[in-house]
Structure formats: structure tokens, C-alpha cells
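Aim 2 progress update. The chain analyzed this quarter is reproduced below.
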Amino acid sequence: MDFVIFIIAMGGLIFGADFIINQSERIALRFNISEFVIGSTLVALGTSLPEMAASIAASAHGKADMAIANAVGSNIMNITLVLAVIFLITKQFKSNRNFFAKDSIWAMMPVIFFLLMSIDGVISSFDAVLLLLLMVAYILFLFEDAKGLEMEEIDEELKKNFSWLSSIALLAVGFIFVIVGAHFAVDSASNIAKSFGVSEWVIGVVLISFGTSLPELIISVSAALKGKAEMAIGNIIGSNLANISIVIGASALVNELHFSLSEHVFDVSLMTAATILLVYITANKLYTKPAGISLLILLALFLEHTVSGMGA
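Predicted C-alpha cells:
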């Protein structure tokens, strides 16, 4: 039964992703907002809702490690899996945006903040407010930056037929399918893992992180296949920033998160390494299949370390 639920849940994710991509594009075109901005804000925040729900629930139950592990693991998955898949399936990566000049600092900043805040062993409510303000700053930056962009003329037919009510309704439907689909995909995958005797830690670190990253994976891949590279990259950068700033920030507002950096140095270091690799790729515009393979190697290291560590 769990296998059937998992397949249906994946279908819901794909169906919802298509709704979100189409409506986000309509909003972008109607209001001359770049697809990158839409991907980095509306889509990124929507696809981070599963991480937020899981981590806030974990924090409310006093499971600080689980709340942080979900965000850290999701960031690793977003770069080493989602971005890798995008590079591998995209025949020709076209983008007018200089991701290195405009967005690299925003990819690194939350990681740096998280490392500094973790040194004393606790993410406090004060730290939480600072993290939330970081997301606000990023959104303000995106819209300020978008003002200087030359956009194409609005399609008069689209302008005439555009309806906020229908777009919001269809976006809501898409997000419901994505979030509910992710929830059932995680639950069914966890049950399948338990039936095979996989440890709870592996389920939490690998499967839950993978499950909550499914919306980013499905939506980014769908965008890439439709030639919307900027929306795909924007979703990953925005989601990673949201995972630390909003997911960890909101969780720390519920309960202070006591966290031992030394106990989880490998996972945190790998997240940092993946982010640095993202910066390197954007700096040299290495949007290629070899770059995708390199990211998958990093993912393999993460999975091997996690599985072998739990088996010890």
C-alpha cells in the first residue's frame, strides 16, 4: 500500500508543479517581473513550506537536531541533487542573468550567519529574528534589482485575459498538491524504509530531507525542461536561503534550538562546501553536465557518510 501511496504522491507533486510554473509565468509576464524574481520569491517560499512545517513541528516537540538537520539536509539536496539534475537534463543552459555577480553572496550569506550563530551551541530567538530579516533583505534586493531590467512589452491578450482570482486560485491548488504530495511521499517512504529495517536516523536525515526537497526538485526540473533556467536557479537559491533564514528562524522562535556544531561537523561542512561549489559554478558559468556529475559526487559522499555512520 505504501508503494501505491508513494506513486500517487509523486503524481500530485508533478501535477501541482505544472500549475505553479504556468501561473508564475503568467504573473511574471503580466507585471513585467523577471522569472528569476518569481522563482526566488513566490515559488521558493512555496516549495520551502514542507521544510518549514516539518522543522517547526520538530522544534515544538523539543527535537532541535531534527529541525536543523531537515534544513541542512534540504540545502545539500537542493544543490547536489536538484541543481545536478538540471545541468544533466538541460541541453543548452541559457540565461541573461549574472548569477555570480548578483546572487552568490545571497547563497553564501545564510550559511555564514548559521555557522557564526551555531558556535555558542544555540540558535536563540534573537538569532531567529536576524535570520528572518535576512530573507526580507533578499526579497527587497530582488525587487530593487528588477527595477533596472529592461523587460519585454506586455502581451495585450494576456493583459486582457489576466485574472488575479483565477491565478491565485490555481497557484493555491498547485501548492496544495505539491505540499500534500510531499507529505505523503515522506510518510510512505518512511514506512517503506522501516519495513526494510533502515534506522530512524537515516530516515530523518536522508528521506525526510529528500522528501521535503521534492517540491524544489519537481518544480526546478519542470522549469528547466520548459527552458526557464532562471526560474529554476532562482528557486534553488531562494529555497536555500529560506531553509536557513525562515525554516530555522521560525523554528527557533517556537523554541530555542540547542545545537552542537562539533557533533554534526561533516553535514554542516558538506553544506558549506556545496554552497561554495555553487558559487564557483556561477562564477565560471559551468552550467554543464560535468558540473552536474561533480555535484552528484558530493551527494554520494553525503549519503555514504550518513549510511555508514548509522551502521557503525
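The longest strand covers residues 122-123. The two ends are 31 Å apart (CA to CA). These observations will guide the mutagenesis experiments scheduled for the next reporting period.
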